[in-house]
């Protein structure tokens, strides 16, 4: 079709279409950390111990991790509009199933559906960004995407707890399902895969470069896994990002309540500050590594800071103001996972960057997948038998034993980073 009389899409339209995808990512992040402020209700309603509760929360991560590589393939073949619509629809169904779950089996099934469905959001957003935005706006869109995710995490803190205290967790989750269903309809009605479908010129690059490799996705995956850096950079975030997802996403609120005597809203506010520091640390540390022209030194230094910070939190008795400060510093240092993403992309040839990003994005989510139930298992092993309103209560020694697993994983991450080959911020030939 001739481009005569056509223009690039207006900014308002482009951001609106992209923004609907961003809303699903926000909801996904909200669902990721929502169990943290309703641990007492879930334990009481389903008669759960810490290990079972950790497993319930981690069902989100089981399916999310499993969907990382297939999502990229499906997005290429279906397009972001259909993928986002299907994702939002299944997320609404999973949330409704979770809200009405009569037993832990159905609650687990709901969380499994939620994780699998919202896993499509981030990749679909990036695909929309390549077509609706100018190339120089892609980094901005990626940064705003991460900001949207953290906003979802903040909403799952104090605001969610206030709503749960007023209406109960099941009605609140049912409303969440209705909002997600409305988003599903809005995506189908308004989102388009490419500006050409609205009569505008697309910003998409020429497809020829991708077409040659489209049929060899699995061959590309095998090639990516043949690079030593890939394996290391998948494993490193398990401890680093897993510490934040485990503390802010599940065990931080009950720990602050039961060990430090805080109310749920104050505890949720503190864990939200950890998420915000984590979000700020990512782009700042990523930009700093670019200025240094090296990835490895800053990755090592910030991991050392994170390990020391979590060591202080776990093993040193602190007043709550000092604990909050150390949590913020540790969260900021754990934002170094952005360095890891750049590291991974540069460690393979340019034609494999997308596959490498998908593979390495599994690492942070595996942190939540392993550590949330792992900490819960250790809490149950050290439980003294106390309960309040049907929910188990753990003492400081039990939490210290559970959180020691976080510290051990970060220490292992630090050791692994030492074996990564430096890329000097340049793409491997």
TrEMBL record:
It holds the Pfam family MFS_1. Its main location: membrane. The chain crosses the membrane at residues 12-30, 42-62, 83-106, 112-129, 138-160, 172-191, 231-254, 266-286, 298-316, 322-344, 356-379, 399-420. The keyword Transmembrane applies. It is found in: Lysosome membrane. Keywords: Lysosome, Membrane, Transmembrane, Transmembrane helix, Transport. It is a multi-pass membrane protein. It catalyses: L-alanyl-L-lysine(out) = L-alanyl-L-lysine(in); L-lysyl-glycine(out) = L-lysyl-glycine(in); L-histidyl-L-alpha-amino acid(out) = L-histidyl-L-alpha-amino acid(in); L-lysyl-L-alanine(out) = L-lysyl-L-alanine(in). Residues 16-425 form the Major facilitator superfamily (MFS) profile domain. GO terms for cellular component: lysosomal membrane. GO terms for molecular function: transmembrane transporter activity. Homodimer. Interacts with lysosomal protein GLMP (via lumenal domain); the interaction starts while both proteins are still in the endoplasmic reticulum and is required for stabilization of MFSD1 in lysosomes but has no direct effect on its targeting to lysosomes or transporter activity. Belongs to the major facilitator superfamily. Lysosomal dipeptide uniporter that selectively exports lysine, arginine or histidine-containing dipeptides with a net positive charge from the lysosome lumen into the cytosol. Could play a role in a specific type of protein O-glycosylation indirectly regulating macrophages migration and tissue invasion. Also essential for liver homeostasis. This is Lysosomal dipeptide transporter MFSD1. The lineage of its organism: Bacteria, Pseudomonadati, Pseudomonadota, Betaproteobacteria, Candidatus Proximibacter.
């Amino acid at each position: 079709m001739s481009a005569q009389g056509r223009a690039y899409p207006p900014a308002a339209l482009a951001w609106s279409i992209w923004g609907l995808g961003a809303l699903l990512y926000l909801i996904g992040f909200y669902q990721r950390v929502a169990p943290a402020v309703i641990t007492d209700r879930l334990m009481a309603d389903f008669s759960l111990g810490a290990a079972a509760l950790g497993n319930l929360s981690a069902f989100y991560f089981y399916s999310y991790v499993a969907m990382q590589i297939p999502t990229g393939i499906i997005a290429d073949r279906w397009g972001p509009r259909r993928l986002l619509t299907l994702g939002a629809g299944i997320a609404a169904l999973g949330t409704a199933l979770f809200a009405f779950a009569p037993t832990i089996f159905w609650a687990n099934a709901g969380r499994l559906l939620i994780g699998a469905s919202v896993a499509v959001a981030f990749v679909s957003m990036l695909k929309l960004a390549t077509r609706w935005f100018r190339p120089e706006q892609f980094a901005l869109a990626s940064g705003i995407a991460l900001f949207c995710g953290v906003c979802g995490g903040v909403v799952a803190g104090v605001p969610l707890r206030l709503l749960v205290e007023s209406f109960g967790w099941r009605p609140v989750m049912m409303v969440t399902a209705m909002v997600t269903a409305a988003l599903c309809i809005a995506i189908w009605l308004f989102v388009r895969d490419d500006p050409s479908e609205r009569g505008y010129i697309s910003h998409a690059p020429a497809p020829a470069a991708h077409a040659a490799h489209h049929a060899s996705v699995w061959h590309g995956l095998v090639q990516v896994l043949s690079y030593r850096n890939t394996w290391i950079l998948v494993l490193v975030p398990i401890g680093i990002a897993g510490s934040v997802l485990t503390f802010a996403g599940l065990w931080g609120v009950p720990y602050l309540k039961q060990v430090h005597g805080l109310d749920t809203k104050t505890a949720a506010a503190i864990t939200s500050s950890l998420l915000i520091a984590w979000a700020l640390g990512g782009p700042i540390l990523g930009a700093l590594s670019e200025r240094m022209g090296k990835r490895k030194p800053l990755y090592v230094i910030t991991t050392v800071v994170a390990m020391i910070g979590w060591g202080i939190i776990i093993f040193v008795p602190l007043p709550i103001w000092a604990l909050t400060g150390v949590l913020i510093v540790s969260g900021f240092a754990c934002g170094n996972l952005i360095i890891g993403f750049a590291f991974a992309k540069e460690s393979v040839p340019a034609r494999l960057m997308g596959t490498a990003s998908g593979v390495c994005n599994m690492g942070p989510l595996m942190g939540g997948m392993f550590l949330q139930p792992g900490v819960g298992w250790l809490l149950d092993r050290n439980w003294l038998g106390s309960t309040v309103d049907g929910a188990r209560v753990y003492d400081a020694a039990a939490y210290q034993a559970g959180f020691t697993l976080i510290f051990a994983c970060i220490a292992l991450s630090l050791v692994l980073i030492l074996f990564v080959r430096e890329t000097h911020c340049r793409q491997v030939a």
